[in-house]
Amino acid sequence: MGERKEKPQYLTLKRFILELLRKGKLSPHEKLPSERDLTKQFALNRNTVRHALGILEREGKIYRSGRKGWFASGQRLVFDPSKEHVNFDKLARKQGFTPAWQVLESGTMQATGELQELFNVEEGTELFHVFETGSLDGHQVYYSEYFFLAEICPGFLPKIVSRPMTDVLREDYSIHLYQKDLLIRPINMEEETASHIGLPTHSPGIFFRRIKNSQQGRIVQVDYEYWRADSIELRSTFSS
């Protein structure tokens, strides 16, 4: 018989934390013991501890918050990418969350490069841009860059300070949005993007690019969304 292989050291720590999560001894967004404390408690070196924590982070069980340390992940927002259109506010409330968003910057710009191609307009066409962050139960979960064809919604920007953008388009401009194209890609967060939602650079994330038509078939909105990997779950249900 061959010799029994020793269990990798990092697995002991990983399984310990998973058991705490399973038994509810770590509440959502509760801070884990520091890396130094875990090093002492399990007689492991710092690299082994970080390896175990990094695996749990990639699995969405825990997350880092800058220099504050490691925290247990919270409940995920379930998103069905097969749906025609999703309203963040309504979807989150339906799943028991308290959603909120904050506009960081808004204004006008000219369509060039990729945006010109995606909107299929002439270079220099006026666009509205809105950069915002969104949160669930007080915890920031995404950073978004939204772009709108300005000519179809004059006076749009002041109206979105306290109302969901999709509601403003539908109620004030009679524009109903239909998803034309959806791109989903796993990413490592760039520094600027990560900083908006309190994550270290290169943290795992999920990137969404949405292209939306009006009921007349014209492209009127393009979205770039950057979500924390531990805050969203993609799930579709299909009828047999």
TrEMBL record:
CDD domains: WHTH_GntR (cd07377)
Any one Gene Ontology BP term: negative regulation of DNA-templated transcription
Alphabetized Pfam families for the sequence: GntR, UTRA
Lineage: Bacteria, Pseudomonadati, Thermodesulfobacteriota, Desulfovibrionia, Desulfovibrionales
Top-level taxon: Bacteria
GO terms, molecular function: DNA binding; DNA-binding transcription factor activity
InterPro entries recorded: Bact_HTH_transcr_reg, Chorismate_lyase_/UTRA_dom_sf, Tscrpt_reg_HTH_GntR, UTRA, WH-like_DNA-bd_sf, WH_DNA-bd_sf
Keyword annotations from UniProtKB, A to Z: DNA-binding, Transcription, Transcription regulation
Keyword Chaperone: no
PANTHER family assigned: MANNOSYL-D-GLYCERATE TRANSPORT/METABOLISM SYSTEM REPRESSOR MNGR-RELATED, TRANSCRIPTIONAL REGULATOR OF 2-AMINOETHYLPHOSPHONATE DEGRADATION OPERONS-RELATED
Species of origin: Pseudodesulfovibrio profundus
Protein name as catalogued: HTH gntR-type domain-containing protein
Residue ranges of every copy of the HTH gntR-type domain listed in the record: 7-75
